[in-house]
Amino acid sequence: MAPGYKAGAFGHQRTGEQGRLRALEDLWDPFTEHYLRQAGVPTTARCLEVGAGSGSVARMLARICPSGDVTATDIDTRFFEELAAEERITVLCHDVTQDGFPADSFEVIHARMVLCHLADPAQVLAAMAEWLRPGGLLLVEDLDLGPADASPHPVMRQGLHVAERTLGVSQGSDLRLGRRLQALVTDGGFTLGGMGVQPVMIGDGGPADEFWRLSFAQLRDFQARNSSPLTGELDAALSMIDHPGFTDLGMHAVSVWGRKPVQPTG
Ligand SMILES: C[S@@+](CC[C@H](N)C(=O)[O-])C[C@H]1O[C@@H](n2cnc3c(N)ncnc32)[C@H](O)[C@@H]1O
User: Fold this and answer.
1) Domain limits at 28?
2) Torsion, Cα of 230, 234, 237, 242 (10° steps)
3) Smallest CA separation from ligand 1 atom 4, residue
4) Which is deepest, 76, 93, 99, 209, by most CB within 10 Å?
5) Does the predicted model carry a pTM greater than 0.85?
6) Is residue 102 part of a domain?
7) What pLDDT shows up at residue 2?
């Protein structure tokens, strides 16, 4: 059993983690906002943001729902504590695998890049279905690192595979969960609303480059602390990002939304 998120390479106590989470927000927030609006979020909605990270989606939900409210949770709330001062945002230290909410508490639940780090995402989706009101909206988003397998750049292919193994071993993460996300949502009893898949490049000068730089650097430090021989692969991939003329498809960003049926199924 992996030691868990807090002990892994991307625990919040790691130097640079907030910057890495902000880079993730820069690259993914436009997709999240697009899908929230496409799915349709009432301006009065009670929203739950699970694993809020550095807090941008909690802020986004508060903006989209000017007459609603937002509960922003994480196992470590240090990077968005300041949101507690906002009138319609509650900040809560909450482990989604262990801590609950009363049934039917929310009209919208969102979780991005959280399920992929959990040992049993299906169990967490079942809990979310309970916390959601009938007809309520679930939007879950995760990555699929599958494109790494077909990378024509051996250095990047190896770097991404080392990244995947490092996170799998250190914190039990599944960096291909995005590929299974739609099945998890429908198997969890939600009525599928829609799905979007966005390619995320490396090396094209776009918003993802900083995310990859900081991710490789942090994984490299983690491996170095553990005296691992894999630091070389991570260093090589890191320097490749800014190599003139280099671009690659790093991953797909997968977003799936669905609704809790108004009448229970079955
Ligand atoms: C990769 S970050 C994503 C942050 C944010 N959702 C985003 O996309 O910008 C994963 C987040 O999930 C949180 N997390 C991990 N395990 C959790 C758990 N069991 N319950 C709640 N949050 C968790 C981490 O602390 C971290 O903030």
Assistant:
1) 5-144+174-201+252-259
2) -150
3) 53
4) 209
5) yes
6) yes
7) 56
